[in-house]
Amino acid sequence: MPRIKILVLILAGGAGGRLELLTHTRAKPAVPFAGTHRLIDFPLSNCLNSNIDDVWISQQFNPVSLTDHLANGRPWDLDRTSGGLLVLHPRQGNEGGEGFQEGTGEALWSQAELIREFNPSALVVLSADAVYKLDYRMLAEEHCEAGKAVTMVTTEVEPDDADRYGVVQVDGDRVTEYVYKPDGAKGNLVSNEVFVFTPEPVLDALDELVRERGQDDLEDIGHYLLPRLVDAGEARSHRFGDYWRDVGKIDAFHACHMELVGDEPPIDLDDPAWPILTRAIANRASAQVGSSATVQSSLIAPGAKVDGDVSGSVLGRGVVVEKGATVRDSVLMPGAVVRAGATVTRAIIDDHVDVRADVGEAGGEIALVGLHATVDESLPAGARFPQVEDD
């Protein structure tokens, strides 16, 4: 078939509240991951590996933290004179779609005029809080051949976790029912927040919803838009059976890292056939592991210095683990320091945190220490430090 025109829209404007302290001063897609990357790297690298050149990112909360990392799209070959990366911000002055958005439905509708002007054959709409590899071009071509308004990428999750998502019932590849975040899910097949839309019928449906409900009540696309398309017989499923992990919650974020340091990591971020690229950080030398160090089953990023005991952990760029310190089953983000005598166990330590006392404990809930904090007194399992009031 002829090469189709594809537009990717990454909805990166959510507040990311489920990641708690990690998103208090940064956008969720800008959260560091695996020692060297950020969450936005997964959809952007998938675009590069899928040979898709037109990528828009809709920003809203804490945009500076993400804009700096994007580097005009250069790491993903999106810094182009024509096309490439376009960063969209909340705006004022037009008749509709202005100001801050209250959900992904409004975020999509607010860009309707620009999408219609661009006139893609397929609109791929993504979130940026999952770890996976997927060929979006293949998916878009399959969607166009099927002739439906939406293709939902679906995957199976743990039954106890299904009510966090849009739960899908299918007959073959036809979606027969879609229920968004139900109380008591009827199964564990869910939409994984990757959608391919045929723009015109979907944008028309959003216009109808705005007339019926108003712009401020569009909420997420799973509330009203997707059920309407399913009821009209215009929704299909693409079953995805490879590795996919939603890391939008603290326990899931930690668990995914623990999978990466296991004996058989389920995803290779450095696969030459499908690399996950990121913005290079200059002036970082190789990691240093001292003669007194013990390191087992861990990821150590450039610039890290380890003289203590590290096992089953991920250490970001510039992390320091002093002699006499212990880090187990934890994630330490760039610049964190664990001082001699301190033990960090089952914890997530944010950027440039100075740990001088024990944090967490084996078998306990995940402890979380926020940006630039100093830990002078021991923190128990499940601790959140510092305590931050909601805005």
Word description of this protein:
- There is one protein chain.
- The chain is built from eight helices and 29 strands.
- The chain is of the alpha/beta class and 391 residues long.
- The chain folds into two domains: 6-260, Spore Coat Polysaccharide Biosynthesis Protein SpsA, Chain A (Alpha-Beta Complex), CATH 3.90.550; 288-385, Hexapeptide repeat proteins (UDP N-Acetylglucosamine Acyltransferase, domain 1).
- The radius of gyration is 22 Å and the shape is globular.
- The model has no long low-confidence stretch (mean pLDDT 93).
What's the mean pLDDT score? Answer: 93
CATH-defined superfamily of the largest domain: Spore Coat Polysaccharide Biosynthesis Protein SpsA, Chain A
CATH architecture assignment name of the largest domain:
Alpha-Beta Complex
Instruction: Count up the domains.
Output: 2
Family: Belongs to the bacterial/plant glucose-1-phosphate adenylyltransferase family.
Protein name: Sugar phosphate nucleotidyltransferase
Keywords: Glycogen biosynthesis, Nucleotidyltransferase, Transferase
Domain Glucose-1-phosphate adenylyltransferase/Bifunctional protein GlmU-like C-terminal hexapeptide: 288-358
